[in-house]
Amino acid sequence: MKTVAVTQRVVVDPPHGTRRDCLDQVWVKFLLGCGLIPIPIPNSVDAALPICEKVSGIVLTGGNDLTACGGDAPERDETETALLDLAERRDLPVLGVCRGMQMILHRFGSRLEQVHGHVAPRQSISMDGRRVEVNSFHNFGAMEVHPPLRTWAIADDGVIEAVKHTGRRIIGVMWHPERLEPFAADDVALFSGFFEA
């Protein structure tokens, strides 16, 4: 099985004043089900880059708003930016989920804005000319993208729900495949095929 780097959210523990890197345990179950071995990545550029020299791809997970959108985890923005730079140098595949897609949008110049009605257990979107049901847990999104990104899926209100890079192995999706029970066969096939697991 191939290994993939998996980014983590930053959680602040107020009673102790600590900042913790956290990964929902279902990510491990989901990625193993896709034939992938997840390697959780700390939010430290100095630690993250050496770890990622040996992986076959990168998963940018959800959680934490970008600092450009008022988020309070600059160390995560810095780490994920460095990982995107590494992926470009090594031609590694990158799959962004929710916040991860927002990082991809931000990197390639798409304007993120606050959106409404996109926190729901089920949402119907258009993807490759067919209707697909996904979950939705995001408050920021984009209404348009520019090359080298292209829209892959879109909600009825015009919010872009998935993107693909036209020249590199980069995909972003706004839904959370790890939060479905059971996991959707389409999502498992997406991750397995994308990383060639």
Quick check: average pLDDT? 96
CATH hierarchy: architecture: 3-Layer(aba) Sandwich
How is the biggest beta sheet arranged? 9 strands, mixed
- In the CATH scheme, the class would be Alpha Beta
CATH fold naming: Rossmann fold
Taking the alpha carbons of the first and last residues, their distance comes to 6 Å
Radius of gyration: 16 Å
CATH homologous superfamily, by name?
Class I glutamine amidotransferase (GATase) domain
- Supply the number of helical segments: 5
- Provide the spatial order of strands within the biggest beta sheet: 4-1-5-6-13-12-11-8-9
The poorly predicted ranges are none
Q: Give the helices and strands as they follow along the chain.
A: EEEHEHEHEHEEEEEEEH
Task: Give the strand content.
Answer: 25-35%
The number of E-state strands comes to 13
